Each structure stands twice: as C-alpha cells, then as structure tokens.
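User: Could you check the structure of this?
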Amino acid sequence: MQSIRPADLTSLRGLELKARSIVDGFLAGLHASPLKGASLDFAEHREYAAGDDLRKLDWKVLGSKDKLFIRQYREESTLTANILLDVSGSMNYSSPGLIKKNEYAANIAASLAYLMSLQHDRVGFLAFAEGVLTLLPPRAAHGQASAVIKAIEAQEPSGKTAVFKTLEAAGKLFRRRGLVILISDLYDSGGPEEAMKYLKYLASKGNDLIVFQVLDRSELGLELDEPFLFEGLEDKDDVILANPELIRHEYRRVMEEFIGYFAKECVKNGIDYRLLDNSASFSLPLRAYLARREKMLK
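Assistant: Sure, the predicted structure tokens are below.
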C-alpha cells in the first residue's frame, strides 16, 4: 500500500478514515521488512467467527483465499498511553504547499490512537492551548480510538501555548503510569526551561515520554526572499515588517539553540525527542511509538 503524504491531507474531515489509511500503509511496510525494535507481536491467522472485531480482518488474505481471516497477536501486556495535542494559535500555520501544523499534528495523534487500539492499549487524549481544553481518560474499550479521533477533529487552533501548565495538570490527572506523547511546536509562553521542568516532572513520576516537536519547514530556516509582514498567531498585536535576508543568520542561530535545548535536555533525562517538520512521513512517529512500547514491555 502506498504511504500517504502529509501534503495530501489538507483537511481534518474524515480523520478516522485517514488515520486508518496511514496506519494500514505503515503496517503493510512494517510486515514486509525486518524492522527491529518495533514489533506488533503478530502470531497467526484464524478463520473469522461471528462477533469478532472487524478491524482485525486481514484483507490481503481475503483477496488470496476468498475467506475471512482474523489477525491474532500475542497479548503479552498492554500499556496506558496518553496523547497530549497542542491546539494553540501557533499551530495554525503552514508555508505555501504544505499542510498546516495543526492538521499534520492531528493526523499523527489520530494515527497513534488507532494504532494503539490495535495493540489493545489504554488510550487517553488531552487537547491544550493555554490550559487543558479537552480530556478523555485512557480506556481500552471498543470505540475508544473513534472517540479520541472525534475529539481531535473538533479542535480549532486558537489562543496562546502554555505547555508547562498543561504538563503540570497532566501530572496530577494521570493516576496510572504509562506512556505520555506530547505533540507540539513547543512555543511555550513560559519559555523552554519551564516546559522542560514539567517534562522532567512527568518523567519523575514513572512515565515514559515521547516528545514530537512539530514545526513548519519555513520555521526551521526562514526560507523567504522578499520583505515580509510577520503577524503573531497567538497575539494579534505582534506585527513585524522584516527583510529575511537581514535577519536570517540570527534567526537560524536562535532557532537552532531553541531546538537544540529540547533535544539535549530530553536525551539527558531519558525522554524520546523527535523533531518533525510538516512534510515528514507519518511513519516516523508510528515507528517511534512502537519502539518505545516494546522497550517498556521488556
């Protein structure tokens, strides 16, 4: 199955179908290659019986044998995973020809929720901007992934970002240790040090953490040629007219320092950090989740 490109997904409508397509394409490639550190613990097929979960049907086998077969997995264990999605105003941005950061992040979150449901993991969801906006406690029940994806679809990016406040609240809300996945551009109103402080706090409570920092490609290098009017997405009073040629060098230095701070501090504290721009393949976060999951269950 051909993988879906981020640029093809310019709307959040039909997000569940898109998530399934992303995951199905990813799994087709996963089973076709000897990927270490990201196993789905596939065991065997058995013939379909009335009442079986239709999501486990193997359509490839149907095509070759003209019978319905279910994919069975070795259920060695399950884990609790909470997805924290940044829906602040700064996520509502893209450079020409690319998917908006919030749409890219939403597709990651939805795909992870669907993949977690296939793993029978308990999936929780938290949307945030300056504080917690939506909270779905983790459950392994049938239909939980759909509930999470509907909650993701309902989000409209607006407001300021306060990652540190959200992580502080999450530390009090999450009663069960598990995997915490943060998807954000990390433009924190309290500064990177405050955000990192509470990432360490969550890790100190026994949680495993994955941080996906989602940025637009133009944010990484300020790839603009003409003078440009920069308008703040979180504070409409922030308006700056600047010539990219004159500020590009200093901008890149500051951005590299910003990204490097999180990369260095996360590694130092055992937190899995991944930088993603909005043209990167959706397989990257899915692989990171499976690898971390396998490590936790060993």
